[in-house]
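Hi all, posting the design record for the shared folder.

TITLE: backbone redesign
STEP: 1 of 1
STRUCTURE INPUT:
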């Protein structure tokens, strides 16, 4: 393999840049050329791509976002759009493709590989930690640390004013961010889409805490479980407590990647190049039992990635 291409796709996540750096440098180390594709599959279709070298990826390991930019592409969902992208594969002499993104991006990459026979390897980059076949995705650790920092700051003001704070975090279908940050942040209740919840139970917990002199309460809500405003309103109606709502939003996607995410991004990025060099296709570089491995993309996409309900139960016990 002489020349590979690389793109980032779907939602951006902190550590994508560290991963781009790893892919480019590892490939160059092994004597290959690298083509960077801008704006995900849109740039692939439009031919918005060009060569990268060692200095293209200098000074980016610590930066959030992605220097290649990312996009969601309606056109890539169509056979015509993908055929245009294949024209660029031929034009630029691309022999393998690395896609850094979420499960949607891997579906696109897999379809493309089947249609045109181009070897593709995925690297899981999403803050949601919702990709089957890997224990961790690039960006999750940074995102939960960002949320934790917010929880700690809100706790200070919650204590001073004796208020109940509701913090809404990202996670439309998956409660991983809420669960990890809520447990680490000592939240009273954690609401996630995977578990039904009951306002009576939430309010009883708050009242129990209040009766034993607790000065503040924090409830972490994944956006897919309920809107933070709605939760705040319902609790206020039932308890009479002054509830304040904070919606963290896109703040959770940004920021300098944590050490754990930089390490993960570097390891997975390098592994993706190794997989292409070994002649593999439709694989994802992932982590299993702490080891970096190649996982079959299609198999991974057919599985589901449940949240760790043991953490949910533990959070319930520790916030009694
Ligand atoms: P995140 O989880 O962070 O949102 P993602 O990779 O899952 O990231 P999606 O928006 O689901 O984000 O997918 C990114 C892009 O992948 C889509 O905009 C589309 O271009 C392409 N894609 C997704 N599914 C398919 C598919 N079945 N066939 C072809 N292309 C697809």
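Okay, here is what came back for every position:
SEQUENCE:
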């Amino acid at each position: 393999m002489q020349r590979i291409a690389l793109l980032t796709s779907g939602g951006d996540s902190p550590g994508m840049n560290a991963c781009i750096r790893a892919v480019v440098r590892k490939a160059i180390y092994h004597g290959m050329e690298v083509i960077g594709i801008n704006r995900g599959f849109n740039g692939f279709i439009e031919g918005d791509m060009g060569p990268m070298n060692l200095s293209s990826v200098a000074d980016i390991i610590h930066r959030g976002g992605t220097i290649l930019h990312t996009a969601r592409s309606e056109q890539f969902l169509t056979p015509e759009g993908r055929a245009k992208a294949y024209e660029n594969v031929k034009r630029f002499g691309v022999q393998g493709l690395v896609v850094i993104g979420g499960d949607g991006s891997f579906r696109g990459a897999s379809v493309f590989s089947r249609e045109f026979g181009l070897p593709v390897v995925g690297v899981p980059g999403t803050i949601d930690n919702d990709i089957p076949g890997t224990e961790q995705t690039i960006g999750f650790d940074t995102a939960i640390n960002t949320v934790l920092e917010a929880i700690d700051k809100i706790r200070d003001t919650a204590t001073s004013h004796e208020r109940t704070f509701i913090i809404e975090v990202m996670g439309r279908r998956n409660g991983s961010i809420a669960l990890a940050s809520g447990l680490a942040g000592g939240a009273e209740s954690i609401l996630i889409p995977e578990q039904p919840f009951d306002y009576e139970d939430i309010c009883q917990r708050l009242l129990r805490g209040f009766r034993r002199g607790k000065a503040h309460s924090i409830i972490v809500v994944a956006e897919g479980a309920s809107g933070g405003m709605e939760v705040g309103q319902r609790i206020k109606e039932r308890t009479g407590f002054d509830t304040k709502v904070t919606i963290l939003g896109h703040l959770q996607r940004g920021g300098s990647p944590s050490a754990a995410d930089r390490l993960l991004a570097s390891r997975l990025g390098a592994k993706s190049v190794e997989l292409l060099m070994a002649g593999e296709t439709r694989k994802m570089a992932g982590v299993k039992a702490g080891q970096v491995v190649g996982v079959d993309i299609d198999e991974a996409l057919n599985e589901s990635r449940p949240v760790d309900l043991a953490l949910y139960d533990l959070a319930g016990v520790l916030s009694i």
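COMMENT: The chain has a mean pLDDT of 95.
Let me know if anyone wants the other runs.
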